[in-house]
Amino acid sequence: MPEQVRPNKLHYGWIAAGLTFVTLLVAAGIRSAPGIMMVPLEGEFGWSRATISAAVSVNLILYGLMAPFAAAVMDRIGLRRTMALALAVLALGVAATTLMAAPWHMVLLWGVVVGGGSGTIALVLGATVVSRWFDAYRGTVMGVLSAATATGQLVFLPQMAMMVEHWGWREAVILIAAAAAILAPVIWLFMRDRPADMGLWPVGATQAPPPAMRGGNPAVAAIMALKDGMGSRDFWLLAGTFFVCGLSTNGLIGTHLVPACFDHGIPEVKAAGLLAAMGIFDMVGTTASGWLSDRWDSRKLLFWYYGLRGLSLIFLDLAFGPDVFGLWLFAVFYGLDWIATVPPTVKLTTQVFGREKAGVMFGWIFASHQVGAATAAFLAGWIRTDLGDYWLAFVAAGLACLVAAAMSMMIGRKSEPDAVAVPIAEGEAA
Q: What is the pTM of this model?
């Protein structure tokens, strides 16, 4: 029977969380690469931004659709094997992009291979690690792991931008492929699936956890959960608001901010620095959001997050200028708000559907997030190709955020006996 860790000894759960943080960080760096590659690919191959954005959209869709099934894979073969295998797939897929010569090569490699690999080690991985390894500090750890998905920009984007400028995009791609290849064996050697594997209880546990139960086919369970969720009003509200979250972050700003800066005469390295700054402030904003969601009504938090984000996007086009002061101000604000929506959304999902179903339901809600991201990635590229600038894309995304702000206040307002497990009370802790 697992025993509680000695008070003066570092719990292995913190090591598991650290390995997960690095994995999410590397995966985030890989996903952000198209924002740096878009202009060089356009110049070398003559592909339009709409064509390149189509591959990015496939990547984002698969990244999201893998989320509900990633937990099933982890349950079947374990966290360690899943993480190591996904990193190996990412390393091979990214490295192979240096050989592409046609648009369908990019769709296959960056869209299908990289999208599927990165989707396996997304936010659902963080939620699984937290639920298995932690009874205490769950909100804080989940906030930090969520922030890793944007902090990857801080680590990789500036170096990639400089390499693209001085040597070329292929060398930048090799850099991130090498990071994934190096990390894969580290995960294989040191990651563990559950505290029981180390003879431990979860961090902060006051009693021995129940043994891990394996039911039927988890993939079938994921499909059945979607079927149940589709009959819930709150599921559609959560999925709809998170759709807008993906549309206004990964899909629009994460993919098209650097090319938009380039259109206004701002060098790629300086533009990448803006995204890196967002990564810094995202760490602060997301961690603070986790703290706030334990003390404030999560619906009100989402209302302010989406509302302020929408206003910033509507006026973003005015921030472009030679001194880029307005863009730096935008980067600070947007970084604080980037994925601050995750902790309140996870909390509301848990309150609506209960702890047992929260993981798989959040997986489907996260899939909606990525469908929104893919929609924005493609449509913004099409708008830029057709109209010559991104103004309409920014304004449309801003208006969508204002709609999401209003939707946030409707979550949990109507009783749904077939879906709601825990009533939502203002200020209730997760």
A: 0.72
Q: Pick the closest to residue 348 from 403, 399, 407, 307 (CA basis).
A: 407
* Full set of structural domains in the chain with CATH: 12-205+217-408 (1.20.1250.20)
98: buried, middle or exposed (CB in 10 Å: 19+, 13-18, 0-12)?
middle
Q: What is the mean pLDDT of each run of 10 residues along the chain (430 residues)?
A: 56 92 88 78 83 81 80 79 93 91 88 87 82 78 78 71 82 88 95 85 73 61 81 93 91 83 78 74 82 84 93 86 74 80 84 74 85 87 87 94 95 57 42
* Nearest Cα to Cα of residue 73 among 229, 189, 217: 217
CB-count burial class (<10 Å; 0-12, 13-18, 19+) for 381: buried
CA trace torsion 216, 220, 225, 226 (10° rounding)? 180
Rounded distance between C-alpha atoms, residue 253 and residue 237, angstroms: 23
Residue owning tokens 């943080």: 21
Distance of CA 123 to the CA centre of its chain: 6
